[in-house]
Amino acid sequence: MPESISVRLGITQTIPCQYIDGEFERLVVLAAEEIADDFKYRHLLAHGFRRCGDSLYAPHCPECKACVPIRIPVQDFKPSRSQRRVLNAGDRALTIEVIDQLDRSAVYPLYKRYVEIRHAESSMNPVSYEQYENFLFSHWHQPKYLCLYDEKTLVGIAVTDYLEDSLSAVYTFFEPEYDKLSLGTYALLKQIEFAKSEQKPFLYLGFQIDKCAAMNYKTRYKPYQMLENGHWNQYE
């Protein structure tokens, strides 16, 4: 069971859900007067929270429980046959570098192309630089960036929060023309490898949402754990 932590929280207004048509969403968020830091973050992460920009939040919807926090126990993870094929193809074609600092303005065009082509119908589009900054980056937490290169060309970035006892996969974006290499899957598998190499027990993936095509893939990475009724239950 996640360790207890005492923080002040707030609840947002109820608005139409961005993931499931006909549903409504509401969030519980770290209160504005609370000073966010990595200590609070890692404890709230274990309680089902997620970071978006400077905010820490979790679903607190009136009548829907579709969003279920999910994480990978990386030491137990075993890639499937298809995931091994993705890893082998990516390792042959690409190189990967983990960095602490990112030239945000230089990689924004890559993010913009990705969202406009892969998520044209989502609430993320139309894209703006302000939305990009407010979504991925934080004043109080420094992510790491897993950068994918085709020779010297940057073709993908996985924004990954690095904490004392875990990693959290924040967002991955890549050149849409490299879709044949399944870069989203490849980047997630490399984040699992990175967590294992850094001896972090868990990689958090955010929320599994079975009813949303863009958010129902996370149970393909096995075993996985889901936070249900305050307990992390493992599924093989």
From TrEMBL:
Transmembrane segments: none
GO molecular function, one term: arginyl-tRNA--protein transferase activity
Catalytic activity: N-terminal L-aspartyl-[protein] + L-leucyl-tRNA(Leu) = N-terminal L-leucyl-L-aspartyl-[protein] + tRNA(Leu) + H(+); N-terminal L-glutamyl-[protein] + L-leucyl-tRNA(Leu) = N-terminal L-leucyl-L-glutamyl-[protein] + tRNA(Leu) + H(+)
Compartments, as annotated in UniProt: Cytoplasm
Function: Functions in the N-end rule pathway of protein degradation where it conjugates Leu from its aminoacyl-tRNA to the N-termini of proteins containing an N-terminal aspartate or glutamate.
Family according to the record: Belongs to the R-transferase family. Bpt subfamily.
Name assigned to this protein: Aspartate/glutamate leucyltransferase
Origin species: Corallincola platygyrae
Protein encoded by which gene: bpt
